[in-house]
Specification:
Elements (H helix, E strand, L loop, with lengths): L14 E4 L23 E4 L3 E4 L7 E4 L2 H18 L5 H11 L35 H9 L4 E2 L4 E4 L9 E3 L4 E7 L4 E6 L7 E2 L9 E5 H9 L8 E12 L5 E3 L3 E7 L23 H26 L22
Parallel strand pairs: 1-2, 5-13, 7-14
Antiparallel strand pairs: 3-4, 6-8, 8-11, 9-10, 9-12, 12-13, 12-14
């Protein structure tokens, strides 16, 4: 074979190059490796690929090579990880291989037949690997690895993104989302929360909107060691709906970049009030306090005026009472 390092390494995803017609390119290296390992893993179009021209500022150029095929696979992997951030490197490799369209070594006469062509239902050879990458199928498979994808439900952001392609969140601010379809649960996660999705507790099944405030985000991130809460983060959101088997189906993920600001005051600004007024609008409690204060002041003024205007007659019970005349009965 002609595949050298690092493409010959066992755990590397090695990419062969295809022509525009998806036949193997004549310059694409073939296996096996020195360790008799079957390589490449997969193949992607690498001939006459248009890209930016280095050191030109605004130029474009078409190049050919496995170095032009590999970025196409890298872009597919980026979409897979956006669809399902829980994928491990081995998950990524397996999904790419499982969803690829297998090509025999002599496909379209671009290469000589090989021994693997004689193996029934063979899934890898030293020319095409597991075959031509199918980006759409790979992304769909990634999205459904945890939950079945349900296109009847969807989440979309209604909070405006800033000119720096971020949403800036201050204490009291929140990410606002709109929901399509009948949704049971809305979840979010940070790029730091690997394998952990968090339910948005304020969402109720059947609501057509959801809100994720800064305090909830900060509370979750504060529980992680070594995480700087203040600053940039990437958040993902998804909607879930129960299925007939007791599990769930999920919407496509949406992701956004956020700038968390003044996080030290995020919790105190949104803690529920423990006053006597309970859960009422913010202007009601001060108004009631002012009214009570006015009543107290008015009452004190009235009492003060009453004390000055009324003379209170007092009785001295220590003085001897005047003798009472005795009554004489006349017959």
């Amino acid at each position: 074979g002609t595949i050298g390092t690092p493409g010959s390494a066992e755990d590397v995803i090695t990419v062969g190059a295809l022509n525009k017609n998806t036949a193997i390119a004549e310059y694409s290296s073939e296996g096996p490796t020195e360790e008799a390992r079957v390589k490449p893993n997969i193949a992607f179009v690498g001939s006459d690929v248009m890209s930016t021209q280095h050191n030109s500022g605004d130029g474009y150029v078409a190049f050919s090579g496995t170095s032009m095929a590999t970025p196409g696979v890298a872009g597919t992997v980026a979409l897979m990880l956006q669809a399902n951030p829980d994928l491990s490197p081995f998950d990524v490799r397996n999904i790419l291989q499982e969803t690829a369209t297998y090509r025999e070594c002599h496909y379209m006469g671009a290469n000589q037949p090989c021994a693997e062509d004689l193996i029934p239902k063979n899934r890898q050879n030293n020319v095409y690997g597991h075959g031509h990458v199918e980006a759409r199928l790979a992304v769909m498979e990634a999205a459904q690895r945890d939950y079945q994808l349900d296109t009847s439900i969807a989440v979309s952001l209604s909070t405006q993104v800033g000119i720096d392609d971020r949403i800036h969140l201050m204490p009291g601010d929140a990410l606002e989302m709109q929901l399509n379809g009948s949704v049971d649960t809305v979840q979010w996660r940070s790029n730091h929360l690997r394998h952990d999705w968090v339910n948005i507790e304020t969402f109720m099944p059947g609501d057509n909107s959801a809100s994720l405030d800064l305090a909830s985000i900060v509370k979750q991130l504060n529980s992680l060691p070594g995480i700087t809460v203040e600053g940039n983060h990437t958040l993902s959101m998804r909607a879930l709906v129960a299925n007939e088997s007791g599990g769930h189906r999920a919407s496509s993920l949406i992701s956004t970049n956020v700038m968390l600001m003044d996080t030290a005051n995020a919790m105190t600004s949104t803690e529920p009030s423990e006053s006597l007024f309970g859960d009422v609008p913010g202007w009601v409690a001060p108004a009631i306090l002012l009214l009570l204060l006015a009543i107290v002041i008015t009452g004190m003024i009235v009492l003060n005026r009453a004390d000055n205007a009324v003379e209170v007659e007092t009785i001295d019970w220590t003085k001897e009472a005047e003798p009472v005349a005795e009554a004489e009965v006349v017959e």
